[in-house]
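Notes continue from the previous slide.

Worked example: a multi-chain complex. Inputs as given:
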Amino acid sequence: MKVAVVRFPGSNCDLDMVSALRTIPGLEPVLVWHEDAALGREEFGAVVLPGGFAFADRLRAGAIAANSPAMAKVKRLADRGVPVLGVCNGFQVLVESQLLPGALLRNSGLKFVCDWTHVRVENTTTPFTSGLRKGQVLDLPIAHGEGRYFLERPELERLEKDGLVAFRYCDEAGRPTSSSNPTGTLHNIAGVCNKEGNVVGLMPHPERAAEALLTPLGKADGSLVLSSLLVKRWRGGA
Amino acid sequence: MRAEQLGLGLTADEIATVRRSLGREPNETEWSMIDAEWSEHSSYKSSKALLKLFPTTGKRVVLGPGYDAGVVDVGGGYVATLHIESHNHPSAIDPYGGASTGIGGVLRDILSVASRPIALVDILRFGLIDESGHSRWLFKNVVRGIADYGNCVGVPTVAGEVEFDDSFERNCLVDVACVGIAKKGGLILGEAKKPGDVLVLIGGSTGRDGIKGATFASANLKADAASDRSSVQVPDPFIKKLLLDSLLEVIESGENIPGMKDLGGGGLSTALSEVASKGGTGVDVELKRVRLREQDMSPTEIMTSESQERMLLVLPASAASSKSGVIKILEKYDVPYSVIGRVTAHPNLVIRWGGKVVADLPASLVTEAPLIPWPSRKPKKPVGSSRSRASGQPSSIQEALITILSSPNVASKRWVFRQYDHEVGIRTVVRPGQGDAAVLRLPNGKFLAIKGDGNSKHASLDPYAGAAGCVAEACRNVVAVGGEPIALVDHLQSGDPSDPEVYWTFREALQGMADYCRAFGLPVVGGKVSFYNEDSATGRAIKPSPIALVVGLIEDQSRIKTMSFKGAGESVFVLGETRPELGGSEYSAKFSVAKGAGAAPRPDPAVDLATCKAVLGLIEDGLVSSVHDCSNGGLGVALAEMAMAGGVGARIDLTKVPTTCEAEAETLFSESHGRFVLSGGDERALLAALRRSGVPHAVIGKVGGAALSLATGRGAARLRVASMKARFEGAIPELMD
């Protein structure tokens, strides 16, 4: 499957994402410059918006990228049911583009946080979680200054009721405690999906945990997120 | 206007030398070009003669000092590049902007030789954050500046060091080093060799920020230092990122780039004079072609502006005149560029303003400042020393260890490195807090260990031993993670060189470092000197602060080691001899030290080399599971850190430690060099191997339990790992958040 990894000016996890996807047999990552016509023309099985600081994150994180011609194309692909993953800055771009609900605010400590976290899988019906078990605890690193997920209360309740929370920070045993919440994010939310399930955003970086060598405990959990693309049992799946 | 009226940093002798050599009075633009390039910052006029003492060659050295970065062969057709910079004065005035632009500068140096930056290391010095709000303000904003810039450009900050001492109260030190990786055949140098080639200025526009920054960095900070804020450059990591991505794409595309140079201290003036002088050519440049941020800038301002995020490319005329590959890539990334001139055979710098010549100077005159042989005199009391805060004796070993573990100098630096992205690039294998040095994977299948160290307290008491000691410590740290040290870049920082006592400490430090490197077989491939670091209010010099950044090579993954105790039941070994060397120790900062135990630690390179080889041998033979060096806080802190990292205790018998100390506190907290603590399951095999090595060693205990127990002749101290960890992790956040 060809996977487009969109590179905006200021993306900095794009090459990492390409090499992580390349470690998974069956996935063929293609680095696509945001102005490249290939994004609308070629047949991609999935699109990934990588982390970084697209357009320097001026105004708000993700705000300028969200209004770029590239995102108009990504929206059209998402509407057709193509799986779209946003990681970190890519997640911020997806909420700014309204492909995903909510907003990502500055971390409660007002500082950038780079650390390893435990993340519990909440929804296994998306193309990026279908290879995982519900309740499974993954070790994934985070690195961001604006990752506090926010949504007004009634909508947040609906989000929870509809099962659109995809990942939640938790402790080692899978409990979403306040001490395991690194950023003050609401309900320990680390990632969400859209109603159709094909668009997923998360703050932790699966591409940084796709090889055992690079993870403190030697668990390549990030690889399970990315390789879910090859598991054909998600709700809207082709 | 005559030189004396221009507010230059040049001395009367230097002004006379220029007039004599040129045979006329230079104009204002010419004076400012010479002023920038003859500043201490750019010319190394107070240190150049002594820097020749460093050993700079070795079988892996591809490029030694004198270029934008040192280059070492790491095998498999790859080279690692390394460079260190400081941004002390700018950070003392504007900690956020100063620290940011410091990173920007060192990244450009690594990029200049056509290598991809893969890691940043920050070595920071502040006043006492438990006493001074000003120091907390500097610390907080320097860290935030490094984080915002480094995180944005996507280069991980993987290692570093922070030291607090009141001599840095108003003159903090912000050292930043960068490591890069490149294919061996692809290096580009900062030289313009071929007349007819064109000069292309790319990246950010030129503004009034940082004008005379090199001159500002080459004098003591003034008491009303805030008035110098315009000497601090404005950072823009986004433009830097585009510059980085576009140039890396140009380099990887195989386009011909005959020369490349970053614009740092001294701006365009320094970049042009250095590419011409290194290439044996001249340049002819039209300043009207330089893209300006402010339209009414004068030729002098344009030449000496230190606006950030700019690079100078030397390209074949054909590459700039049409839609060449290079230009297409720059346009793809929206990186602005302008062709500002050409390389000439006549070896002069000819600078024009609307066609009219505004400066015409021989390149060699500009780049060759006369050296200054400063007088030196051994100080009566250590330079930078201050009122002792030590008082009395600890009531127990427990109290002493807990006090030291919660001192900001020793306490966990998680508060700092959690703000730095240390994972981006997916190369980080050993991250901050896990091991004694960072470990990164390389594209050739090997691994690179990286660590920077210094100890200004040791260096103040004994500059020779203290500077040698920072090399010793950095080497131990690299060895502890399994790396064989292959190269070093240094940074020597002190006060005003015209003060004979300060200059003596500088000479001693340089000699100490050079002698140690030579005996250890470690080449110095680059470095930096920073003078004029003085407290702007008191005029007191900082403690001499030599820094060593060492890189080491690890052949395969199985040899990578971390500090955490792993298996309960493993035997704990100490290697090397502990001597009564508590001078400048963390213990001596808190408690009084017996007469005779107050000397600064003095490393012996021959002994250290044998010990390091023994440790690498044990690692290669697969006999050890954890390795940690003894440095700040001595054996006591080393054991506590291994226990805290592993979440498991150990029972230690201090009477077994090879030592010449009389008191237990001395054995536990002396900062003698040449020591490691390690653990392994096969005690007999370890003992046999260590006996063969001839290195002093002993089995001092076993891993296990929830506490670190330290038995002395008179009983045992017992410290729960969880309570040590609470103090160790909590100390800095309690002061800062």
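Summary box: The first strand of chain B starts at residue 61 and ends at 63. Chain B is about 35% helix and 25% strand.
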